[in-house]
Amino acid sequence: MRSARNIVVHGYATIDRARIWQIAVERVPRVGEAVESLLLDLAQGRDLEQ
Q1: Which of 4, 9, 18, 34 is deepest in the core (most CB within 10 A)?
Q2: Per-residue pLDDT at 40
């Protein structure tokens, strides 16, 4: 996702809007799920370094 950010932020050549949409639809929800899981572990007092 970092490379996608660089393309958008730095305005490289052309932005492929279909690719940006694909990343948003496919990858962003997985990141959200991972963060939600980590927050739940923290709330339950689990050690995240295991």
Answers
A1: 4
A2: 92
